[in-house]
Amino acid sequence: MALLTIDNLHVRFRTPAGLLHAVNGVNLQVDRGEIVGLVGESGCGKSVTARAIMRLLPEHRSAQVSGRVVWRDEDLLAKSETDMVRLRGADLAMIFQDPLSALNPVMRIGDQVIEGPRQREKLSRQRARARAIEWLDHVGIPDAAARVDQYPHTFSGGMRQRVVMATALSGSPDLLIADEPTTALDVTIQAQLLERLRTLQAETGTAILFITHDLAVVAQLCHRVAVMYAGRIVEQATVAELFAHPRHPYTRALLNSTPVPGQRERLEPIPGAPPDGLHPFSGCPFADRCPHAIPACDLPPPLEDVTSTHRVACHRHEELADP
Amino acid sequence: MNETPLIKTEQLLKVFPARTGDVRAVDHVDLTIHKGEAFGLAGESGSGKSTLGRLIMGLESPTAGTIHFDGMDLTALSPAALRAQRPRFQMIFQDVRSCLNPRHRIETIVSEPLRLAGQPRAACRKRVRELLDHVGLPATVARRRPGELSGGQRQRVGIARAMATEPECIIADEPVSALDVSVQAQILNLLRDLRAEHNLTYLFISHDLAVVEYLCDRVGIMQKGQLVEVGSAADIFQRPQHPYTQELLASVCTLTKPGSAS
Amino acid sequence: MAHRFHIFRQHRVAFVALIVIVGYALIAVLAPWLAPRDPYSMSGDYPLVAPGTAGYWLGSDPFGRDILSRLMYGARTSLMVGSIAAGLALVLGTIVGVCAGYFGRHIDAVLSRFMEVLFSFPDILLALIIMAILGPSTVNVMLAIGVVYTPIFARIARASTLRVKRAAYVEAARTMGARTPRILIRHILPNISGPLMVQTTLSFAFAILAEAALSFLGLGVEPDAPSWGIMLNEGKDWMQHGWWVAVFPGLAITLAVLSFNVLGDGLRDLIEDTG
Residue C240 sits in which domain range? Predict the structure, then answer.
């Protein structure tokens, strides 16, 4: 069943250069216990979508958010900040790319890991400390009992991101939004962290919305994937379907421009650059870079079902399907 | 490709003093790069791969050891003699936000190495147009400033600047890691084409093994300041010998493209 | 450029301040033509005339000199002292700060310690010491104030240089074989100019105040010269009989200092907005 349903989400920012259309009608569903990858290049609106769900955008200043974000029959966008504060951490948690700025440098890591639950559950000091050690151990911090009283600067980048993970998971949220959590890390560290995240997810059943630019990470971690371009979801499918039978020309082009191990034959880059969001368009956002564009692409392509789990927004997806 | 060494380091050592004890960023590295080859230097952050590139470019001075370029000991050259060699080896940077002076026009930026080599202004202007065209940028870019360009365009400007003096060798420090994949592919193909046209020698520094494999003939793997394995790209990626190389390759998330055998 | 102008319009107050400063500058330059009377000429017939009477719009001082004319000539003194002192501090401070920041090590250690010593004196005390040694004159006032404000510029220039010298474009210039003076002038200086311009504007305000203070204390420009500080000094003894003698120069100082401060803050916002 659906845990989170995003319905026609739009986000616009007022900038000195004009109105920036960052998210243009995103529809997405995350079910209980699944890992959904939200993938796209910089500026496609994937991080803004995540922040809109968490209500972290500057709504009173430059951001205009519309649509619905339904969390268990309630619209998060209609909630007061007080209600959101109660939801964040307990039901919804988020981790970010930079593990350094996510931790308070003058607070012991144990206190940070258990800060949320301690406030809500009124845990005793000893109970809180024991829970913190438990969580640090869960995320794979060696010698957790000794490190619980240390400060963030004594931890390496990978270890800090584990601490951040423990902080987010200690409140047993139903949904974890992870915004490029492994991008700043080395490959060996990234591999360990993804492995740990997968294990924890299987144990706790927390649903994850995993935001990344890296298709390979999606292939390795996620159950389902949504591809974003210019503030819209252009294709979504199970991971197996998407990588075996990509339907949208953008998804294909993205795959063709990514070098994979063993690749020596020439890459096929996507010509041109993505739209800047300052000039709204009515048709398919990818049309001007698409080798298959036809006049009909001036009209907006609806997100159509290919199979029950595979949807694509392209007028020509049937003609362009693999034989 | 012949086997004449263009760059050769011998027992190169760079120690950075630190409060917790000295750090050997580059620890007695012997590296040979032959004329015309694309050499990939891979490793994780802190492995010393960037420091090695910076030592060769003369941005850091070595604690011990020698760096030979085309038979000359760069560490023994006078500043004037080193400046005379500068046009022969150039560098491309990772940070596309800061690699171009934000106050200068693209024209000024690309012509700077030419002006430093003493070329007259009029000749520079013509050459800048050629260079921009060569890296796939419209001539109108010449009058703009870096802030008005996208990341991919800025890296093209960086490449045009590096190519201005027709160097024999280019040292590229993570030139595509700040770029999106679709733009990254454009730059990788550009680097491939330039090498083929100009018979360039590359020292290509990257943490991304797939990118190194795509571009390079020979590969060196660095760990904690040491060059732990060197070999042909085929050997390193298919038959890695060193345990660290094996671990590194096993950690890479792999992607199977539709249609490719898996 | 249009974009920058747009931002500037958002800071209307700063724009008003700029207009006021331009007004002061015009008055200073055109004082010989604008001033209704000779600022030096005394008239025994009209001492301490109230504003608006007998053709003295802002009144006259105890010696019968026209306050308005003296204020106009005083603007010359204030703006000249302000610009030359702030300019001197800018040039000296930038040289010291850029050298300390770029070369580092021993050069940095020596220059920074010296600046810290200067910095540790209270502003006016240091200026007083310098004036006491050099003797009162307009040139010496400018020198003293310039030296007093040099450490602020040095500190800003040093911090900015430390940031900019790590930028890849500076390294790129080095790999192309650019010599140090070229790097400093073409790559470092243009990129640290923003915060220095802000400080120059703010220092203008400080310098005007400092000149007034020194002149008020009798250690400033020549006593006979029209200076807002000297006018204030002379006026203070006559407050009961002719408030205008002290109040108008006081207002002139306040408005000028306020305008430079507001403009400096506006410039800072502008630089931060445009990166």
Answer: 13-29+69-274
Q: Which of the four pLDDT bands, split at 50, 70 and 90, describes residue C275?
A: very low
- Quote the mean pLDDT of chain B: 90
The pLDDT of residue C221 = 77
Per-residue pLDDT band at C8 (split at 50, 70, 90): low
Q: From the list B44, B181, B214, which residue is nearest A254 (CB)?
A: B181
User: Is residue C105 in a domain?
Assistant: yes
Q: Which of A186, A215, A267 sits opposite B185 (nearest CB)?
A: A267
DSSP letters for chain C: -HHHHHHHHH-HHHHHHHHHHHHHHHHHHHHHHH-SS-SS---TTSTTPPTTBTTBTT-B-TT--BHHHHHHHHHHHHHHHHHHHHHHHHHHHHHHHHHHHHH-HHHHHHHHHHHHHHHHS-HHHHHHHHHHHH-S-HHHHHHHHHHHHHHHHHHHHHHHHHHHTTSHHHHHHHHTT--HHHIIIIIIHHHHHHHHHHHHHHHHHHHHHHHHHHHHTT-SS-TTS--HHHHHHHHHTTTTT-THHHHHHHHHHHHHHHHHHHHHHHHHHHHHHH-
Q: Which among C1, C160, C170, C171 is the top mutation candidate for probing chain B, defined by the most B β-carbons within 10 Å of its own β-carbon? A: C171
Question: Which residues in chain C are contacts of B99 at CB distance < 8 A?
Answer: 168-169, 172
Within a domain: C80? yes
Q: What is the pTM of this model?
A: 0.85
**Scanning every residue of chain A, which has its alpha carbon at the shortest distance from the alpha carbon of B44?**
A186
Average pLDDT over residues A299-306: 90
Q: What is the CATH number of the domain that holds C243?
A: 1.10.3720.10
Q: Is residue C183 part of a domain?
A: yes
The partner residue sitting opposite B102, judged by closest CB among C174, C177, C191, is C191
What tens digit of pLDDT does each residue of C217-249 get?
888 777 777 888 888 888 888 888 888 888 888
With respect to residue C53, please indicate whether it lies within any of the assigned structural domains.
no
User: Taking all residues of chain A, what is their mean pLDDT, rounded to a whole number?
Assistant: 89
Find the chain A residues whose C-beta atoms sit closer than 8 A to any C-beta of C. Answer: 16-17
Looking at residue B164, its pLDDT comes to 93
* Domains in chain C, number: 1
